[in-house]
Amino acid sequence: MSRVALVTGGSRGIGAAISIALKNAGYTVAATYAGNDEAAAKFTEETGIKTYKWSVADYDACAEGIAKVEADLGPVEVLVNNAGITRDAPFHKMSREQWQEVMDTNLSGVFNMTHPLWPGMRERKFGRVINISSINGQKGQFGQANYSAAKAGDIGFTKALAQEGARAGITVNVICPGYVATEMVMAVPEKVRESIISTIPVGRLGEPEDIARCVVFLASDDAGFITGSTITANGGQYLT
Ligand code: CAA
């Protein structure tokens, strides 16, 4: 029987590419989304991947949503914490709301999704938790004190939890994508975006599939000895 993979923010952007790549690799995939019903319906129609609506920022909604996915598809063995938002502003203009929204989704969201799934993974002695952080959690970014803090938090979370999961057959890893051609990056003002691209040695934005391939590898049985790792996929823009 195929393994069940749950991808948050899995119907658009990098998440959509991850959902599709996991499906193509033989997983039964559930994708969550928070707001865009139209995009989710179109995604399901095109790919046959089931979508579920809830906010990862809401712990109770995560627990209820996960229970529904598991009732429909079976125990979730692969969790991809991909959902994320930006609320960019220079710090002197950043509001408490902009700070809090990003922390709630990009950092607490990872806790909220992983925590309800953890006991089952421990009992079954198998699990794959793959967190999607960012180059900007590694190097920081002007205008992203909130986002960089949350994404750096995801890296620390990964390293701590990897140690707790190791004996239970659960690997926990984090991928740090660089600038990838998605709506989120396209929302950056063109001049700023062009100047960022000029600092990427490979000379282009990443493709969502560049990140999806990393996820498929980390989810596989072949990657069982890799845990607590940070995989950097950024076209050489920042070398760790
Ligand atoms: N370093 C130093 N100074 C900078 C700067 C930088 N990187 N970017 C802007 N500034 C300066 C500007 O030159 C300007 O200075 P002057 O007033 O002296 O001309 C000042 O800061 C204000 O700049 P803006 O007019 O652009 O300010 P703003 O308030 O309109 O916008 C911003 C600021 C929202 C941060 C905008 O610059 C921006 O969107 N930057 C891009 C941030 C970014 O890279 N976000 C990533 C989104 S994609 C993502 O997050 C995915 C991922 O994981 C990679």
Summarize the structure.
The chain has helices at residues 13-24, 37-47, 59-73, 96-124, 135-139, 145-165, 183-186, 190-197, 208-219; strands at residues 4-7, 28-33, 50-53, 76-81, 127-132, 170-177, 230-233. It has 240 residues and is of the alpha/beta class. The chain binds acetoacetyl-coenzyme A.
Structural description of this entry:
With 240 residues, the protein is of the alpha/beta class. The protein contains nine helices and seven strands; from the N terminus they run E-H-E-H-E-H-E-H-E-H-H-E-H-H-H-E. The protein has a single domain (4-177, 209-227), classed as Rossmann fold. It has a seven-stranded parallel sheet, with helices on both faces. Helix 3 (59-73) runs parallel beside helix 4 and helix 4 (96-124) runs parallel beside helix 6. The protein is globular. The structure holds acetoacetyl-coenzyme A.
> What percent strand?
15-25%
Rg result: 17 Å
CATH fourth-tier homologous superfamily: NAD(P)-binding Rossmann-like Domain
- Count of folded domains: 1
Biggest sheet: strands side by side, in what order? 3-2-1-4-5-6-7
- By DSSP, the count of extended strands is 7
CATH topology: Rossmann fold
What is the average of the pLDDT values? 98
Coarse shape: globular
Order of helices and strands: EHEHEHEHEHHEHHHE
Largest sheet: 7 strands, parallel
Helix content range: 40-55%
Q: Give the termini separation.
A: 39 Å
Individual helix count: 9
Organism: Celeribacter neptunius
InterPro entries: Acetoacetyl-CoA_reductase, KR_dom, NAD(P)-bd_dom_sf, Sc_DH/Rdtase_CS, SDR, SDR_fam
GO cellular component, one term: cytoplasm
Protein name: 3-oxoacyl-[acyl-carrier-protein] reductase
